[in-house]
From TrEMBL:
<dbReference type="GO" id="GO:0005829">
    <property type="term" value="C:cytosol"/>
</dbReference>
<dbReference type="GO" id="GO:0009098">
    <property type="term" value="P:L-leucine biosynthetic process"/>
</dbReference>
<dbReference type="GO" id="GO:0003862">
    <property type="term" value="F:3-isopropylmalate dehydrogenase activity"/>
</dbReference>
<keyword id="KW-0460">Magnesium</keyword>
<dbReference type="GO" id="GO:0000287">
    <property type="term" value="F:magnesium ion binding"/>
</dbReference>
<keyword id="KW-0028">Amino-acid biosynthesis</keyword>
<keyword id="KW-0520">NAD</keyword>
<feature type="binding site">
    <location>
        <begin position="285"/>
        <end position="297"/>
    </location>
    <ligand>
        <name>NAD(+)</name>
    </ligand>
</feature>
<feature type="binding site">
    <location>
        <position position="110"/>
    </location>
    <ligand>
        <name>substrate</name>
    </ligand>
</feature>
<keyword id="KW-0560">Oxidoreductase</keyword>
<dbReference type="InterPro" id="IPR004429">
    <property type="entry name" value="Isopropylmalate_DH"/>
</dbReference>
<feature type="binding site">
    <location>
        <position position="251"/>
    </location>
    <ligand>
        <name>Mg(2+)</name>
    </ligand>
</feature>
<feature type="binding site">
    <location>
        <position position="139"/>
    </location>
    <ligand>
        <name>substrate</name>
    </ligand>
</feature>
<feature type="binding site">
    <location>
        <position position="100"/>
    </location>
    <ligand>
        <name>substrate</name>
    </ligand>
</feature>
<keyword id="KW-0100">Branched-chain amino acid biosynthesis</keyword>
<protein>
    <recommendedName>
        <fullName>3-isopropylmalate dehydrogenase</fullName>
        <ecNumber>1.1.1.85</ecNumber>
    </recommendedName>
</protein>
<comment type="subunit">
    <text>Homodimer.</text>
</comment>
Length: 361
């Protein structure tokens, strides 16, 4: 297979972790007979330095023409950087919004997986963790409260702020289909999260999700109210396989789920469009505090590359080879400093990438 990938190293630790992820992809290519072609573009602070804007139209066009995008992270030290002394639409993170919008990425997937080797970093009690957990949160990314009309005005002499939460059936259907498709590749369970006891948009959500479920008889569908879901995530995380939810609920729940894994340097993510195109990136930011020191954990980005193989290129075996290599490295006791524990061997960014490459079979 021949895959054209737009690579966005970005700022901070971005270039270091993306370099390792590309190294792992190249090793997969060599072992399984695929070619990964990379085209680099600038986004974030580095693009501001070069072009005065966080994402140029040309860079976006390059991304559109490729098969998928691999992103490190963008942004600098928010309290102390020249990139933040400007209007919000010119800051590094505006590049992220622009590329997500420009590429039509409406489906955000964030896995939350607990490696048993890292269970001590999980803030939950051992009896709650049980055999661990392995879930993905499928969050609608371009609708709902964050994209509705908003304004603040005086009503009867009182300052009043209004945000509008809107979903139409097509927006719900397309994200539900993505969630069920992914459930088919996993343990075939979808828990759809809403607030149908209060919100009209949630009642429509539930109705459309039930319609979509009819096309997936092998997948079990359960509905859960969002407040209950927030509770269940810390009471019994093992029950979740695929969580399907709208934009704001997904924003909050995916952060909660990532925190119970205890290790931000391990968490991958993907944002997909209607078809197979996706943008793959770690869940963490650009970590300017550790940039250039060869100590960043590259695993979240490497696992994001594995997601790319699975969701954009249907290369399930190859994705699994990366995930198995990561698992093996952890089992052998190698750790970057953020996940270091007693009795383990500490390695840097480059060494971690190399160890994972060597274990791709
Ligand atoms: P952050 O995720 O960059 O860092 C939080 C903490 O986690 C830091 O102590 C950092 O050193 C550590 N950390 C993060 N990733 C790590 C890794 N791979 N290995 C080891 N340690 C790691 O969050 P922040 O400090 O709030 O944000 C820093 C910058 O990143 C800001 O400019 C922010 O806007 C930006 N940001 C970008 C994205 C993105 O590009 N998608 C996402 C979140 C934040």
């Amino acid at each position: 297979m021949n895959c054209n990938i737009t690579v966005i190293p970005g700022d901070g630790i971005g270039p270091e972790i993306v370099r390792e992820a590309c190294g792992v992809l190249d090793k997969v290519g060599a072992v399984y007979g695929h070619t990964f072609n990379y085209t680099k573009i600038l986004m974030g602070g580095c693009s501001i330095d070069e072009y005065g804007v966080p994402l140029t139209d040309e860079a976006l066009e390059t991304a559109k023409k490729s098969d998928s995008v691999l992103l490190g992270a963008v942004g600098g030290n928010v309290g102390n950087s020249r990139w933040y002394d400007v209007a919000p639409n010119l800051r590094p993170e505006a590049g992220l919004l622009a590329i997500r919008k420009g590429l039509g990425l409406f489906a955000n997937i964030r896995p939350a997986y607990l490696y048993k080797e890292l269970a001590d970093a999980c803030p939950l009690k051992k009896e709650i963790i049980g055999d661990g957990f392995d879930m993905v949160i499928m969050r609608e990314l371009t609708g709902g409260l964050y994209f509705g009309d908003r304004y603040t005005k005086e009503i009867d002499g009182v300052t009043t702020a209004v945000d509008t939460l809107t979903y139409n059936e097509n927006e719900i259907r397309r994200i539900a289909i993505k969630a069920f498709d992914i459930a088919m590749k996993r343990r075939k369970s979808v828990i759809s999260v809403d607030k149908a006891n209060v919100l009209d948009s949630s009642r429509l959500w539930r109705k459309v999700v039930e319609e979509v479920a009819k096309d997936y008889p092998e997948v079990t569908l359960t509905h859960m109210l969002v407040d209950n879901c927030a509770m269940q995530l810390v009471m019994n995380p093992g029950q979740f396989d695929v969580i399907l939810t709208e934009n704001m609920f997904g924003d909050i729940l995916s952060d909660e789920a990532s925190m119970i894994t205890g290790s931000i340097g391990m968490l991958s993510s993907a944002s997909l469009n209607e078809g197979k195109f996706g943008l793959y990136e770690p869940s963490h930011g650009s970590a300017p505090d550790i940039a250039g020191k060869d100590i960043a954990n590259p695993i979240a980005t490497i696992l994001s590359a594995a997601m790319m193989l699975r969701y954009s290129f249907d290369l399930d075996k190859e994705a699994k080879a990366i995930e198995d290599a990561v698992q093996q490295v952890l089992t052998e006791g190698y750790r970057t400093v953020d996940i270091m524990a007693d009795g383990c061997k500490q390695v840097g960014t480059t060494e971690m990438g190399k160890l994972i490459c060597e274990r791709i079979k």
